[in-house]
Amino acid sequence: MKDSNLLSILSQMQSPEREEIELVERAYNYVLKAHEGHSRLSGDPYSVHLVETAKILAELGMSGTTIAAGLLHDVVEDREVTLETIQKEFGKEIAFLVDGVTKLGKVKYRGTDRHNESLRKLFVAISQDIRVLIIKLADRLHNMRTLAHVPKEKQERIATETLEIYSPIAYRLGIRKLNRELEDLAFPYVHKQAYEEIKKLLRQKHHEQAETLEKFLRSVKKALAKEGLVKIRTEYRVKGLFSLYKKLEHKEDLEKVYDLNALRILVEKTEDCYRVLGIIHSLWRPLPGRIKDYIAFPKTNGYQALHTTVFTGDGNIVEVQIKTFDMHNHSEYGIASHVEYKQGRSGRDYETLAWVNSLLPKNEGQDLGIKSISSDVPRWIKDLVAYQASQPKNLNLKEQLKSDFLNRRIFIFSPKGDVVDLPVDSTPIDFAYTIHSYIGDHMVGSKVNGKLVSLDTSLKNGDIVEVMTKEKAKPSQKWLEFVKTSMARRHIRHTLSQMRKV
Ligand code: MN
To answer: 274, 333, 402, 490 - which has most CB atoms within 10 Å?
Structure first.
């Protein structure tokens, strides 16, 4: 008789082999013992965290090996079980994964601190294998779900780190499901007031729309059934709070955000998508300019669907997303554009997907073609490699980068190749202060990619920035108008006030 926690993991696994079930069971029993008497801040037995992490991994379609490593992920760090023991009990591969997660756990994000490695360097260098990253994401997701139990003073740092590192990484891997949940869990801890406002706004809007949406959905189903389309699934896609926050912050006012509550229609075949679109357009007038065929022209991250926005006839406007079950799975669990920033003096060479390649399991030789990827890799990662293989070299890479997670952070290089990450639109002054306060305080000019620029220039991802200093130079009050980092602002203010005292 298996216990219910173990069963809850096994039942999430997708057609597991007998050996996988045995492996997961063995790991489960092992950690029950190893974490005996060990509890979470919530008061729960520690094993709850491990079971939840394992369940998330199973739901993502990971294999028994990765799930077992997920169960074991805290034994080295928290229970002083040695890696040798893990290797002896569970083999080299699982020991390697547990080791990776342990190492990754030691890295703490410290904003733009110059000793902090850039996101990419950090995660690629340490995780080595994409499964390590995925275990860490699952671990973080459960920690975020239980963040309320963590001491207040730690909550904000952890939530910020989640927004700055983990959720963008999940997005980059195309795991939208994790990305969204991580964002929405972190949001209230990082931007408390905005969170409350958006929540209120959304509740009100939903209240206004609920009835018409319901009516619209019934009419749509009826119309589709009349045309013989019955093997479908419909659902509401409620926009994530954080993604709405970002949208409102950027440009649009709420009245213009039409995808607040979208109706999602899932069908079996691609051709059905176009049939559904035709039926809907014949009954409800579409809003011009909002019909998107992402099936014929997928988004750079691989997303496929038909989108349209229609007048429901009673004063409302609703977005409709139409896709196949397969396409939907992809968009939830991942197929993403993976880009690698190639470090180099030119500063302009982007190399696609080398980053992902470097993360793929390496247990079957050096050649990382599609065939050589071990069966432990879920389908979406194989798809990713297939996707990569199908891309002409250097196609639209800058576009991909723009749409990627890098749209919130940029990587800036010193002429020596040191890399720092900064918020978007940072200036050479921000860069200078990130390197050292002395350099910032004595800055007289700057070259970006070899050209002299003014100090208020907005830096772009991949710029190589050289800072010129003079011993007698001093910061100017004016700088405060355009610097982006609080670090630079703080130093400038401080130095200015020192100068006045003299
Ligand atoms: Mn953990």
So the answer is: 333
